[in-house]
Amino acid sequence: MCIKRINQFFKTATRADVNDLLSKIILTERQTRIFEMFYLRDMNIGFIADSVSCSPSVVNEELNTIRSKIGKAMPQET
After folding, report:
1. 12 assigned to some structural domain
2. Does residue 14 sit within a domain?
3. How many other β-carbons are positioned within 10 Å of the β-carbon of residue 45?
4. Residue 17 falls within a domain, yes or no?
5. What is the pLDDT of residues 5-36, one digit of tens each?
6. Whole-angstrom Cα distance, residue 36 to residue 33?
């Protein structure tokens, strides 16, 4: 998993690209909310933590899990 690669993907991704990626992974309800808030709405971790009623460290753990799933679903660089 390369965070830079994932972040770069989201800088240039279209809605179709994101939908295609999401169709390849399974996220829990909380992970889906965190994913949308962090990657699509560009909200900070503290705000996300308050919104989903958990600590910032839990949001970071969930983001790591989400990134792992995304990394496995993204095409590998050649």
Report:
1. no
2. no
3. 17
4. no
5. 888 888 899 999 999 999 999 999 999 999 99
6. 5
The pLDDT, as a whole number, for residue 78 is 45
Full-model pTM:
0.88
| Ramachandran area for residue 54 (φ above 0: left; ψ -120 to 50: alpha; else beta) | beta
18 CB-near residues (< 8 Å, 6+ apart): 10, 39, 40
3-state secondary structure of 24: coil
Query: Which range marks the domain in which residue 61 is found?
Result: 1-6+29-73
| Beta strand spans in the chain (E) | none
Contact between 37 and 43 under an 8 Å Cβ cutoff? The reply is: yes
